[in-house]
Amino acid sequence: MIRKMLIAVLTLAALLSQPAFAVEPDEMLDDPVLEERARAISKQVRCVVCQNQDIDSSNAGVARDLRILVRERLVAGDTDQEVLDFLVARYGDYVLFKPPFKPSTYVLWAAPFVILSIGGIAIALVLAQNARRYRNAARQTPETPVKEPNA
Amino acid sequence: MKRILAFLPIGIAVILGGFLLWGLNPDRDPNEIPSVLISQPVPAFDLPPVEGLDTPGLSSTDLAENDGSAPIVVNVFASWCVPCRAEHAVLTRMVREDGIRLMGINYKDKPQDARKWLDDLGNPYERIGSDLDGRAGIEWGISGVPETFVIDGAGTVVFRFVGPVLGDEAIGKLRTALEQARRNRAGETS
């Protein structure tokens, strides 16, 4: 009996409990669609105080202010992109976890592919050279007097 | 072609080495957040005075429509911010000695605390805007207090300093920015 009750209580606790969020109930919007969009935006925005955290999971004061601001903009009818642009206008590209693709970031975005292709070219060159050497060696074999089995 | 290829590894090593050397530079601060405000007009904001204080409030027009006679320094401070206390003496001295106009943004502070703080330490500010909810702070893109901005005669942000203006290096940087603000003004009139 006690065991059953214990299991029931634990199950209930497990069902009711949620992972700890920084977003407090008073910040949340009544409209679940807008709230969902706000959460999605918040996950892309860097907290300027605690630099490797998004504002959605940060407990910093500024992060809370920005979360509320994001929701206000959404309620006012901004699109997701307009909200992000609003923040970028104040804090720079720095607030975005995903840097935009523009002239100053071309190197950043292209570097992995450039490095990868340099490596690919290097491997291709080495392989081609090896193959050539192997072919040459194969062609030379009959001419070179090596120990033949019948000798 | 072969010869060029032979030098390729050295080239790559030099480029990589240069990049790593740049990363090792002790003066480079990877935590520094670049400000988008530099060379931009002051952001739009309008703040009431601190309740119960005689100093008038602060809005962007106060900064944009200045006569350019002296560079303006905007200092974001709060009574709960310990480094601000240390910085206060430096700014007070600069008002006296460097001929700056000091404006304050009192960030997320209770009016009575701000009043007491200014009573204790003195009030070097010409105007103080009370930013209770931190909205003006967001307009300025601040990440905390204290932060200090230099505005030139045209109402353009010339410089941003994050953290307390303490020590020769920080004060030197601020003075350089003040010079630049003065030059900007001179360039306009000539």
Can you offer a commentary on this structure?
The complex is a heterodimer of chains A (151) and B (190). Chain A has 151 residues and is mostly helical. Chain A folds into two domains: 16-99, Helicase, Ruva Protein, domain 3; 105-140. Chain A is 58% helix and 0% strand. Chain A has five helices and no strands. Chain A has helices at 2-16, 32-42, 61-75, 80-91, 106-140. In chain A, helix 2 crosses helix 3 (61-75). Chain A is flat. The model of chain A has no long low-confidence stretch (mean pLDDT 85). Chain B has 190 residues and is an alpha/beta fold. Chain B has one domain (36-189): Glutaredoxin. In chain B, 44% of the residues lie in helices and 17% in strands. Chain B contains six helices and seven strands; from the N terminus they run H-E-E-H-E-H-E-H-E-H-E-E-H. In chain B, the strands form two sheets. Chain B has a five-stranded mixed beta sheet. The longest helix of chain B has 23 residues, at 2-24. Chain B is elongated. The model of chain B has no long low-confidence stretch (mean pLDDT 89). At the A-B interface, helix 3 and helix 4 of A face helix 5 of B.
Q: Please give the CATH class of chain B.
A: Alpha Beta
Largest sheet of chain A: none
Number of domains of chain B: 1
Total helices of chain A: the number is 5
Q: Roughly what percent helix of chain B? A: 40-55%
CATH A-level architecture of chain B: 3-Layer(aba) Sandwich
Could you please say which CATH topology of chain B applies here?
A: Glutaredoxin
Using the alpha-carbon principal axes, give the shape of chain A. Answer: flat
Low-pLDDT windows of residues of chain B = none
User: How would you name the CATH homologous superfamily of the largest domain in chain A?
Assistant: Cytochrome C biogenesis protein
The ordered string of helix (H) and strand (E) elements of chain B is HEEHEHEHEHEEH
| Overall geometric form of chain B | elongated
Strand content of chain B: 15-25%
Distance between the termini of chain A: 94 Å
The two chains with the largest interface, and their residue counts, are:
A-B, 15 and 19 residues
